[in-house]
Amino acid sequence: MPRYDFRCRSCGATFELRRTMAQANDPAVCPQGHPDTVKLLSTVAVTGAASGSAAPQPPSGGGGGCCGGGCCG
Ligand SMILES: [Zn+2]
Protein backbone atom coordinates (compact mmCIF):
# COMPACT_ATOMS: atom_id res chain seq x y z
CA MET A 1 0.00 0.00 0.00
CA PRO A 2 1.52 3.32 -0.99
CA ARG A 3 2.37 5.97 1.50
CA TYR A 4 1.27 9.54 1.20
CA ASP A 5 2.72 12.53 2.93
CA PHE A 6 0.48 15.26 4.18
CA ARG A 7 1.11 18.56 5.80
CA CYS A 8 -1.22 20.28 8.15
CA ARG A 9 -1.79 23.90 7.35
CA SER A 10 -3.09 24.59 10.79
CA CYS A 11 -0.17 23.45 12.89
CA GLY A 12 2.41 22.76 10.19
CA ALA A 13 2.88 19.15 11.16
CA THR A 14 3.76 16.66 8.50
CA PHE A 15 2.51 13.17 8.68
CA GLU A 16 2.10 10.23 6.40
CA LEU A 17 -0.73 7.90 5.82
CA ARG A 18 -0.95 4.53 4.21
CA ARG A 19 -3.92 4.28 2.03
CA THR A 20 -4.94 2.80 -1.22
CA MET A 21 -4.48 4.71 -4.43
CA ALA A 22 -8.20 5.09 -4.68
CA GLN A 23 -8.10 7.03 -1.44
CA ALA A 24 -5.08 9.08 -2.40
CA ASN A 25 -7.07 12.22 -2.98
CA ASP A 26 -9.31 11.84 -0.01
CA PRO A 27 -8.90 14.51 2.62
CA ALA A 28 -6.64 13.57 5.45
CA VAL A 29 -6.95 14.73 9.00
CA CYS A 30 -3.96 15.87 10.98
CA PRO A 31 -3.04 13.74 13.98
CA GLN A 32 -3.88 16.80 16.00
CA GLY A 33 -7.33 16.79 14.51
CA HIS A 34 -6.99 19.60 12.02
CA PRO A 35 -8.83 18.95 8.79
CA ASP A 36 -6.94 21.57 6.78
CA THR A 37 -4.22 19.45 5.27
CA VAL A 38 -2.52 19.28 1.92
CA LYS A 39 -1.06 16.27 0.23
CA LEU A 40 2.60 16.57 -0.48
CA LEU A 41 4.07 15.36 -3.69
CA SER A 42 6.23 12.42 -2.92
CA THR A 43 9.52 12.18 -4.66
CA VAL A 44 8.85 9.75 -7.40
CA ALA A 45 11.61 8.99 -9.79
CA VAL A 46 10.03 9.10 -13.15
CA THR A 47 12.30 8.39 -16.03
CA GLY A 48 11.05 8.31 -19.52
CA ALA A 49 11.74 9.43 -22.99
CA ALA A 50 9.80 12.62 -22.98
CA SER A 51 11.64 14.37 -25.75
CA GLY A 52 10.17 13.63 -29.09
CA SER A 53 12.75 13.85 -31.81
CA ALA A 54 11.55 14.72 -35.23
CA ALA A 55 13.88 13.07 -37.65
CA PRO A 56 14.64 15.34 -40.56
CA GLN A 57 13.41 14.03 -43.81
CA PRO A 58 16.17 13.24 -46.30
CA PRO A 59 16.09 15.43 -49.31
CA SER A 60 14.53 13.71 -52.21
CA GLY A 61 17.10 13.68 -54.89
CA GLY A 62 16.32 13.74 -58.49
CA GLY A 63 15.62 10.34 -59.90
CA GLY A 64 18.27 8.83 -61.99
CA GLY A 65 17.74 6.87 -65.04
CA CYS A 66 19.02 3.56 -63.75
CA CYS A 67 16.33 2.02 -61.58
CA GLY A 68 13.49 3.49 -63.44
CA GLY A 69 13.60 1.10 -66.27
CA GLY A 70 14.17 -2.14 -64.40
CA CYS A 71 17.80 -2.51 -65.17
CA CYS A 72 18.74 -2.94 -61.52
CA GLY A 73 16.45 -5.61 -60.48
ZN1 LIG B 1 -2.55 20.02 12.59
What's this entry about, in short?
By secondary structure, the protein is an all-beta fold. The protein is built from no helices and 3 strands. A 3-stranded antiparallel sheet has the order 2-1-3, with no helix packed on it.
Describe the structure.
With 73 residues, the chain is mainly β. The chain is 0% helix and 21% strand. It has no helices and 3 strands. The chain has a 3-stranded antiparallel sheet with strand order 2-1-3, with no helix packed on it. A hairpin with a 5-residue loop joins β1 and β2. The structure holds zinc ion (ZN). Zinc ion binds next to loops.
Shape: rod-shaped
The structural class is mainly beta
Contiguous uncertain segments of 5+ residues: none
Q: Name the assembly state.
A: single chain
Strand content: 15-25%
Bound molecules: zinc ion
Helicity range of the residues?
A: under 10%
Number of strands: 3
Give the end-to-end Cα distance, rounded to a whole number of Å.
63 Å
Average pLDDT, to the nearest integer? 79
Rounded Rg: 29 Å
Secondary structure tally, helices: 0
Helix-strand topology string: EEE
Largest sheet: 3 strands, antiparallel
